[in-house]
Every structure is written in structure tokens, then in C-alpha cells.
Amino acid sequence: MDSADPAGWGKEQGDARHRSGGALDFRLRGNDGEMPFAMVAGEASGDLLGATLMDGLLARWPRTTAHGIGGPRMIERGFEAWWPAETLALHGYAEALVRYRELVGIRARLRERLIASPPRAFIGIDAPDFNLDLEGALKARGIRTVHYVCPSIWAWRADRVHKIKASCDRVLCLFPFEPPLLEKHGIAATYVGHPLANAIPLDPDKSAARAALGLPGDAEVVAILPGSRGSEVKHLAERFFRAALQLAQLRSGVHFVVPAVPSMKARIEAAARAAGLQRHLTIVTGQSHTVLAACDVALVASGTATLEAALFKRPMVIAYSVHWFSWVLMRPRKLQPWVGLPNILAGDFVVPELLQQDAKPERLVRALLDWLAAPDRMAAVQEEFRALHLQLRRDTAKLATDAIEETIRQD
Questions:
Q1: Exposure string for 115-150, b = 16+ CB within 10 A, e = fewer
Q2: How many helices (H) and strands (E) does the chain have?
Q3: Which of the residues in the chain have pLDDT under 50?
Q4: What span, in angstroms and rounded, lies between the C-alpha atoms of 227 and 349?
Q5: What angle do CA 395, 401, 406 make, to 5 degrees?
């Protein structure tokens, strides 16, 4: 799996560190030279961020190379994935404990490879439990480290700010309130916006989306997004479908549509059958953005999908459930009353959240009915989501690349 060291780059960087007392000499590579970066991105959301960043790096330095852990979008841009992004897909503390030895082993092998052949900078994309320790080890060896996506110290584990400061030369932030919080602790941070705000249209075309999916144009459509990980589907899919069945019995003509990642489609279909929901249900492979554009309201597992639903201006019900042991560990660390990104960004419960024992089908269906029965309330939250969309829309690829160049020029 080891790749060749281009033109003695590792030795040249090692000599530069020796000359500069540990720092890397930016003059070794100009705009016409090869610019090697290392990245670690986990899951589909990290792959999207990594792909956007690759676009910016390639525009700035056409001979950019990058390797590490990444997904298909990054690979399309020339990224060399030593491990696939889904390697880091975890659902709560229980799964992390089960896979602890495996992940520690991968991180150790990756660390040694990068120390042996240092990149121009290491960019850890989200996955803070994996990336911060790796960044700390690389930074100690004189490799510049950038963490992309501020760990949610404003929501969980505020003490992590000290580890961020020790591990990262700079943090690239998706949300505008994060840089002031980090800078207060002496951490260099840059707001770069959220790439989803550029990828999603400001005014989605509901009719076109329904036509593309073969959905009735005049029906009430509810999108069901039970997550992309196996453990999420296990904990959420059947209760989501049981809620949908109850809603269909209370509100005739409603149609349900589910975007399933390919690896989870069979499990989602089985969960729908187990819940007795076969009629008025469309399950498609992928196409989550088309599904969100087509729906009137969404039932969504907490995570990036809640932000996507907000950017599509869709009222939603957020739900989540994890293994009981993970919940026991997570709950005391919660620093604010919200877990869904739309509510966190608004600083209020603009959409309902039903977590753990509250995520019962009866409560889920009641929350969905509350939206469908209140068109004025739906219109008001759609306007709030439009303002959020405008706030998050930035030239993310350029801003992130500018910040990375500033960071490595400090050597």
C-alpha cells in the first residue's frame, strides 16, 4: 500500500526540518511544484468536505497530491485512499469500544507512514476522536496540522478545547459562531462556510423532484431518513416505519419516500416489511437531495441530514436512539438543550427533537401531524431556514485553501 516518495520529498522535508528547528520550509515547493497533502475523512459527510477541499487545493496548486483515508468523491479528484472513509463510521460509544483496537492500529500505521514521508500539511476532516491524537503526534514532528470542522465543544466535551490547541495549527469552521469561541482560547480559526449551502439550491424545485422520483404531484409526501449507518438503521428504521404506518391510517393519501444508501437498502426494506408498511412507500437508492426537495416534511435521524433538510427548507422531526450504554455516557456531557444542527444554529427548538425513549412511534407521528396541520408554521420555519442558508453560503473551497496556505507559509 505504500506509495513511492516523489523526488525524495521525505528526505528533502527532513533536511528542511533540521535546518529550521522542526518547521517545514515553504520555499521547497512553489505553485509549479508538487504539493503533497495527507487527509483523513470519515463517512459521507467527510467525503463531501474533502472533495470540496480537493477542488480548492487543485485550483491553487495543480500538482496537488493527497492520500490517507477518504471516500469516493475525494477519489474522483485524485485522492489515494489507503483506507476507505467508512472505516471510521461509528455509532456511539458502544461501537467505538468494540472497534477500539482496530482503529488504534490503523491510526498507528497511518502515523508512521506520514512521519516517514511527511506531507506538506495534514488535514483531519471531522472524526475528532481519531484525528486529534494523530494531529498531535504529527505536529510534534514539525508537520503542519489543520482540523476541518470544529469539534462541537459548544455542545459536548468543552474540555476538548485544550486538546485542540495542542494538536492543531488551525481549525476550519463550518459555522460563523465557532472562530470567536476558539480564538478566545488562543486557537487560530477560520470560518469557511458550509459546502452544502453551495451544493443545495436556494429555491428547490419540488415539482421536478417529484417527477424525477415518480411521486404523485398533489399528494402529501413525507421523507424518512433513518440514517446511513447500520447501527442507526437498527435503532431507528422500524420505529420510523411504524410511525409512518400510523400516520397513513390517520391521514389518507400521504406518501412516504426513503433514500437508502446502497449498503443499507435491503435492511431498510426488511424494516419496512416488519413494520407492515408496504403501501404508499417508495424506497430509492441514494438521491437524498432529490427526496428532500420532493417532500413536504421529513422524519430525520440526527446528524448532517438535519442540516440538509433545513437547507432544502423542509420542516422536520429530528429523532435519535443509540445503545443504552452510549446514552448513559453521552447524556452528562451535553452542554445545551439541542442536538439537531438547525436548532443549534437557531439557538431554539425551531423543529422538534425526540431522543432515545422519547423517540416512540406515537410521539413521532404526533410531531409530524403537528407540521402537516399547520401550514403557517411550516411557512415560518421555511423562511428561517432560508436566512440560515444565506448565512452559510460562502466560497468554501477558496476560503479553506487560503487558510491552509496561510498556515503552511508560517513555517
A1: bebbbbbbbbbbbbbbbbbbbebbbeebbbbbbbbb
A2: 19, 13
A3: 1-32, 324, 327, 335
A4: 21
A5: 125
Q: Which amino acid is at 290?
A: T
Contact 396, 52 (CB under 8 A): yes
User: Which cell is 315 given?
Assistant: 420542516
Q: How far apart are CA 79 and CA 402, in angstroms?
A: 20
Q: At what angle do helices 230-250 and 265-275 cross, to 10 degrees?
A: 40
Name the DSSP class of 185: T
Give the distance between the most distant pair of CA atoms in the chain: 74
- Give the C-alpha separation, 345 to 330, whole Å: 21
Whether pTM > 0.85 for this model: the answer is no
DSSP codes joined into one string, 246-258: HHHHHSTT-EEEE
Helix residue ranges, H only, 251-394: 265-275, 288-294, 304-311, 324-330, 341-346, 361-372, 375-392
| Rounded alpha-carbon distances, angstroms, from residue 119 to 175, 204, 300 | 27, 40, 39
Residue 283 dihedral angles phi and psi, to the nearest 5°: -110, 125
Could you tell me which of 287, 294, 285, 289 has the C-alpha nearest to residue 255?
Answer: 294
